[in-house]
Amino acid sequence: MNLPQPEPTVREQGIRFVLFGAFNTLVTYLVYCLLVYVMHPQLAYALVFALGIGLAYIGNSRYVFRKPLDWKIARVYPLVYLAQYVLTAGLIHLFGLFAGIGPRLALGMALVITTPVSFVLNRTMLNHARQGAGTR
Description:
By secondary structure, this protein is mainly alpha-helical.
């Protein structure tokens, strides 16, 4: 008999989010390293970026937040990563422009800000999927 699992805490979700993010980064980096043997690096990067978004949707839905996969959410899910990209790029620019921080350190500092933002965006979007699934 399958008993319903309790909803994971925000702390548990946060830990899973970081762990899955590291896994996703490692997998996409390894795929990129293989693809650059057979194609242009920009094409390889575009492919692994898309792969990473797909993996993030599946992993964050099922593993991190324990939510069902939902085609309606999957179609708009890349917007989370568009927002994260824009925010990160903007922070790198601002840190360099106003604080004179180099691009490597600026990215690290930006990630300290954007990772929790990405967590909240993912959690909000995927919790919306659960609420929408319950009203059908």
